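W.,

You were right to be curious about this one. When I first looked at the sequence I had no strong expectations either way, so I just let the prediction run and decided to look at it fresh. Below is the sequence, 517 residues in total, followed by the output.
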Amino acid sequence: MKRRIVLSGVSVLLVFCLLVGASFAWFTDTEKTGANFSAGVLDAILTPENPNEEGAIDYTNLRPLTLAQLETSFQNGTPVGNLEDVADGYLADNLPLYFHKIHIENAGSLPMRVSLSVESSGPCSETNLPQIVENGSGGVKNEGKQAACDNSLADVLQLLLYQQDAEGALVPVNCSDGTQAVVWKDGQAVTYLLPETLAAGASTDYVVAAWLPGETVGNEYQAKHFHGEMVVSAVQPDTVSAEEPSEEVWDGESVEPVIPEGNVYKIATGSQLAWVAQQVNTQHDSWQDREHFSNKKLIQVADIDLGGHEFPGIGADINYYFGGTYDGQGYSIKNFTINRPDSATGNYAGVFNYIRGATVKNLTVSDATITGYNNVGGIAGYVYGGTVENCKNYATVQKVIGPSGGAGGIVGATGVSSNEITNCHNYGTIKGWGYLGGVLGSSINTGSYVSLSISGCSNQGAIVPEEGKEEYAGNFAGHLEDYAEVDGCKVLDTAYPVIVASGSSAGIEVLPAEQMP
């Protein structure tokens, strides 16, 4: 398949260090000191021909603050003497410096996607640091011994991202999930991907703040250090992709790698969704090389139009499954087909063919036809210890053979673990041979440790079994084991006369169209 990202063009290392001096005390009042960019604005001029730049930026005399106090201390100018500090013997030379500005410019001829992160460089070689110890009365004192640098601020330090508005005021940079963007937190680097492509000749500015949270940092962190490198990286799209709009229609072949922000991947296009499928589905001899996206979060940030092409689906089987969290954020994946009617490739079919220990939520699937041999679902073909919530399906779902397995508007079949389907709604047609259901095709029972909870779900889509196979079809589900707990669910009275083909229909209400959600 054609690769849309053709090179990882530029990495700019901006070397910085953080030093907390011994000659200050913790303050709980709002800081009034100025915080100028005393080491200058760091210019990251990104070109393929000039891949590395270095510039020192120092954050000094940091003090534990609340987030509000940190933001109040921001001033884009020369430091101003704080009267309280001067009275306590802390002169202007020892004022804390919390903020530095980074100027990022694309000096090349092609657009770039830019990310910011931090790499810890570990303890420095310095050993003549003051030894700070408790003084026995709730404070600390300088014992005069020489202490070695141990990078011990790493676990408590946070490096936050801000920008300035038109008036120069400090504005937090937020991720798509509403949390403030960081490049270092909890002793780990976090990658932040700039939300917009940086056009050729364009530039942008960020403010990086060093923060010691006042609620958690005590006197024991005085005279401690952190040393690391700010990394500004750029990947350059090729000329073709640069000319296409961001809300592209997938061409059926392109695969675009997604640069994560820490453990968060933002999915905006069909080529990026195809990359996710490629990562999960690619066969590896060693299980350690397989990508399940476990403990990772994928966030869809736009409607994705797959251009009427065939989509492979994400996951393949029990060995190659999606194991992370996919949050559609209410967006849709639309205009595609999945057509795998043979037993060799079609045992699991859906936008997510096979999920295990995963969550798929807030996603709509529309204008699609999903056909499989077995275990076919509008959202997920097979769920093994997973959760599907707040999803809608308008696609036609078809199972070509039966009776084992199932086909459902939301989930084809659930496996031998704890599974949940919550607040999901089907409007698509379900047809074929096997256990057919508007919400779920079939549940499987192989032991007492299996559980299934379905709540707040509904079906308004038609159920169309093959002639002579009506006994396997249900308005809500084809087959429900006794362990399934169903609550607060609804089905349209004209969708199909039987609520559940086999199993209990408790917790499912049959309603006319005007009373359906």
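Here's what jumped out at me. The chain has two domains: 5-237, 245-515. And, maybe more interesting for your project: The helical segments are 67-72, 83-87, 239-242, 270-281.

Coffee later to discuss?

I.
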